[in-house]
From TrEMBL:
This is Glycosyltransferase. Its EC number is 2.4.1.-. It holds the Pfam family UDPGT. It comes from Escallonia rubra. Gene3D superfamilies: Glycogen Phosphorylase B.
Amino acid sequence: MVGVMEDAVACNGGRILPNSREDGGLWWPVMEVGLQWKVGVAMVAALACDSGSWNGECVAVGDLRWDGIGHLVSMVELGKLILNHQPSISIIIFFTSSPYDTGKTAPYISRVAATTPSITFHNLPTVTLPPNSSYGAVDQLFGLPRLNNPDVHQALQTISQTSGLKAFIIDFFCDAAFEVSTSLGVPTYYFFTSGASALSMFLYLTTLDKTTTGSIKDLKDYIEFPGTPPIFPTDLAEPLFDRHSTAYKRFIDTAAHMAKSSGIIANTFESLEPRAVKAISEGLCVPDAPTPPVYCVGPLIASSDQASDEQGCLSWLSSQPSKSVVFLCFGSMGLFKAEQLTEMAVGLENSGHRFLWVVRSPPPTDDQAKHPSALPEPNLDTLLPKGFLDRTRNRGLVVKSWAPQLAVLNHDSVGGFVTHCGWNSTLEAVCAGVPMIAWPLYGEQRMNRIFLVEEIKVALPLDESEDRFVSAAELEKRVRELMDSSSGKAVRDRVREMRDGARAAFQPNGSSGIALAEFLKQT
Ligand SMILES: O=c1ccn([C@@H]2O[C@H](COP(=O)(O)OP(=O)(O)O[C@H]3O[C@H](CO)[C@@H](O)[C@H](O)[C@H]3O)[C@@H](O)[C@H]2O)c(=O)[nH]1
């Protein structure tokens, strides 16, 4: 959660507040930002506030996510952006530790706390689901925040006693807190961490729910969401497939609440997704009620990548020619089975191109999206084809588990990016002007692929087999296409155009600056 508060709050800045309840069990990241207001993302966790130290008007913001870092970074950047426009504000970010944390969250929080005094982090109480509960991943994402509702209630009340709480900004998965903040009369905003095209789909869900029968995955035709290319049902996020599942209900409830909220802050910029932004603002996604204001204030990406480069990615890149290297990296959670890793190695070797490849251990089961935090470091000698590392030594670098992606993408030697289409990775590539090859794995990534390939035209697709396996030949073909061919050039030119659009969005009179000013004016 993030809360924004007045001047007086700044004196708290940069510290990490202690957890107020020690229940043991699962921990999740939640953020809060504070300045002249507090902005809060309502999740399980409450804003645990030091009531005596916050005065004036506040905004509280919260974010509770088990894959942590992607949502946390963009939330922090939102806090920083607010501070740039209104330096008198203090931001309070609520967080809890996550059982799926890749180990990046704590150092990141410490760094922000140390360098940005107006941002304060508050560690929320731990909550746990009942033992033996058969919650799926998405049920947990929505369900755990609900357990923190009493804490959120208490925190918002506490803040309100010493500060004029003007707004509460919640992450999508913190939807449970919507009922808390609205019951207290606090204007509540959603922070949508993906793009406007995904937001169009999401806001339209309640309409789709009312106008269709049966499960979405059984629909036989493409779905037309306003302002986006047609989407085949099986390209939607899997939790939406089964109309009778709890996860489906959570998504529908969240979409309905979002439509009733005081506004939606989206991590995108107008010139990246003009059709979707227009469709939303014209009310096409919520046809039976007024659409709340949507503020496209992005791209919100980390301002610098201070992750360490223990594996020497950057020095290796510095020894490679300009724009010659293909970077392969699949977000904070992407995993591949061993057979797929072998196939990728063959494809890369046969492409003849230079590459920097982040490899993780395969999941212990068939579940491709199992979180990497529980896995050991990969054994490259056994995972990759015999002799592969030796044969590609002069033109390839394989690193284990994690790379400083932002710095890598901004290195002059990188000329292409094979990505899982996570939205932060997408924005980072666009801002660095690096064209993509889209290899979605889970979540809304299959939809993002359609937007990136068909609408925004900054990525080439990868054809998969029915069981979503990508052959070595396909990867080889697409890498060659991206790096060598005229269709690759079209994508390269287009992504640079979008990069310039991203820069323009924050220039005086740029669309994102204007959107943020409007948001601040409304709160
Ligand atoms: O080796 C790595 C891997 C990742 N990252 C960083 O981690 C972040 C990953 O974010 P993202 O690309 O958004 O992927 P996920 O972590 O998978 O993000 C989740 O959240 C996104 C935003 O809502 C969604 O678009 C995704 O589908 C969902 O999986 C980015 O900042 C990367 O730079 C690194 O620095 N090094």
